[in-house]
Structures are given as C-alpha cells and as structure tokens.
Amino acid sequence: MAAVRSKICGITRVEDALVAAEAGADAIGLVFYPQSPRAVTLQQAQAIVSALPPFVTTVGLFVNASRCDIGEILDVLPLDLLQFHGDETPADCDGHRRPYIKALRVRPGEDVAARCLEYRNASGILLDTYVPGVPGGTGEAFDWSLVPRVLPKPVILAGGLTVRNVRSAIAQVAPYAVDVSGGVEVGKGVKDAEKIRAFIREVQSA
C-alpha cells in the first residue's frame, strides 16, 4: 500500500505549523470560517505560510464563503489547495484558480460514491463525521464501515482521529490521507507538539 499522507488542520500558530512540518506532515490546514474556534485572521495565516519550509501543502478551509471573500484571500495568500467544508455545490467549488477537496459528512444510508461523483473536478474527497448543524471539527469519529472500499476520488479521512485510533482507521478505510485537528490539541486551536509527532509516527508506520 502507498504511504498515507497526513494533514494537521486548524493551525493557528507559527510554532505549531513548524512542529507539524518537522514531524513530517504533508499538509497544514488554515481555517477561514469565523465561527470556528480555530479560525485564523489573514495576518495569522500570512505569518504561518511564510514560515513553512518547502513541500508542505497549505490548505485553506472555507464554509459557505462567498466567491468574493475567497478571492480576496487568494489575492494575498499563496494557498496551495482549497477545502470546502459547507454546503457548496460543484459550481461553487470550481473556478478559484486552485485545486480543491470537498468535505462530505458521512451518515448511514448515504451513497458516498455518488456524492463523490458530483464533484468531478475535486482533487480528493474528505470524509468527516455528520453532526447536525456542525460543519466539522466535532472530534467525533463516524462508522468507517460506511466508506466504500472503492471510490472514484482519493479519500482523506477525518473525524475524531487520534494517536490511539488512526492506525485502525487506516487499516479499515485505506485512505489516501488522514486529517486531524482536535486529536492533537491541548485546547481549541492550540496544538500539542508531542501529540502531533506521535500521530504522524502512527500514520507513517501504519
């Protein structure tokens, strides 16, 4: 099996981004959703992005943001990838001059494969836990058996992942990548360096 990639999301501090990069994270996520406790300002994001070494993908997370708001950020911030975590249609996700991944919240009875096909221009599909009224960051895992073994897009698995369960999650789902936020924190938006290192060690050894 190919190596599973890792993304540390909800980064709000330069020091946390540098720990993630040093530990071997493939990507870091910056949340541009004001209602999130992990939201960053443009100034915070600029400081984080400029401090990162090469070959760490920077991902901007948006929830039902306007095309204008996204464009204003992209005009000044060199994000590599966009992550749409709300109710965005395929048309909403296209046309931002960046590749994107679309987050889908998984619940029983949902045809995950069909949903993936709707977003034919997506670089990948992120599968997260469905909690009514909450777009993400719940810290809760979902039933991984709901994920089909074959999907038309690379799968990024999220939702309640920690150092204790990520190896099992990888074994069951065989995702392209895993995405963690709350599972490596000491508080909302404040990461724990050792938890980041331990999480990535588990991913790399899975």
Automatic annotation (TrEMBL):
Protein name: N-(5'-phosphoribosyl)anthranilate isomerase
Domain N-(5'phosphoribosyl) anthranilate isomerase (PRAI) intervals: 7-201
Alphabetically ordered keywords of this record: Amino-acid biosynthesis, Aromatic amino acid biosynthesis, Isomerase, Tryptophan biosynthesis
GO biological processes: L-tryptophan biosynthetic process
Reaction(s) this enzyme catalyzes, per UniProt: N-(5-phospho-beta-D-ribosyl)anthranilate = 1-(2-carboxyphenylamino)-1-deoxy-D-ribulose 5-phosphate
Domain of life according to the entry: Bacteria
PANTHER family: N-(5'-PHOSPHORIBOSYL)ANTHRANILATE ISOMERASE
Pfam families, sorted: PRAI
Pathway annotation from the record: Amino-acid biosynthesis; L-tryptophan biosynthesis; L-tryptophan from chorismate: step 3/5
Organism whose genome encodes this protein: Azotobacter chroococcum NCIMB 8003
Signal peptide: none
Family matches, as InterPro entries: Aldolase_TIM, PRAI_dom, RibuloseP-bd_barrel, TrpF_fam
First-level EC class: isomerase
Molecular functions (GO terms): phosphoribosylanthranilate isomerase activity
Assigned protein family: Belongs to the TrpF family.
Record Gene3D superfamilies: Aldolase class I
